[in-house]
Amino acid sequence: MDRRRNETFSPNQVARSLGVSEASIKRWCDKGILSFTKTAGGHRRIPVHVVLDFVRENDFTLAQPEVLGLPPSVGLGSRTLRQACRLYGQALEQGDELQCLQLTLDLRLAGHDMAVIGDRVIAPAFYELGQRWQHGEAEVYQERRGVEITRHVLSRLKDSLAPPVSAAPTAIGATPLGDPYSLPGQLCELVLLELGWQARFLGSELPMETVTTAVEDLHPRVLWLSVSVLEDPEGFVLDYRPLYELCLKRQCAVVVGGRALTGSLRRQLKYASYCDNLSHLRGFAHSLWGAK
Description:
By secondary structure, the protein is α/β, with parallel strands linked by helices. It is built from twelve helices and eight strands.
């Protein structure tokens, strides 16, 4: 269970974070503008994703974001994608996790969805950092540190999303054996969670046999495979085919993507959708089911 996703705040804390009176918060709760839960003692508690959605939808500015456990400058920085990409790349290289978190939260508050943030900020920032490393302008430790920073940032972004309803379909994802790259899978998870799916990235370097067992146990509507690296392409194709047949039988749509799936390799595979980027995944998933 994700502790932060269950974190809630009192009307007084939310009022301080927004720079309004506590009476206003209670009035908005009573009118249904802000959803809330109640403690056993009858006190209102408001989830952080409700506050962020309110800020985004009503063009508010967070007066004291730190009250909600957020970076103190959230909502005050750049919200343009091009500038955010450049700044995110600089923050990665400098190891500035707080700046990376602020930039991505600012973009969400500006109304950009997770697919856009992943495709147009995070992915190109990593590409640029990789290019700098290849030309001797950055160190490999900076790239590795950037991965860890982004993993933490994605975890915090997950906290900002509303939990799925119980009736939402399930989606699971993984990377195949030999592929250690977890960030694409984590981004896919966030894209689907934002749409309202019960999505879970199972992890990296999973044998097809255990992915098959997961399909049998969890009954997903969608299985996504992110394939950035393949040590044995022929073995992957052989192992993939029975997995696909099982998914077809179970009415589970298989979605694949990743730079390791070349054109010749893709021609040997069957799938419901091949996604070049996160926006393609978002569109496909929304065509199946989308609460948002």
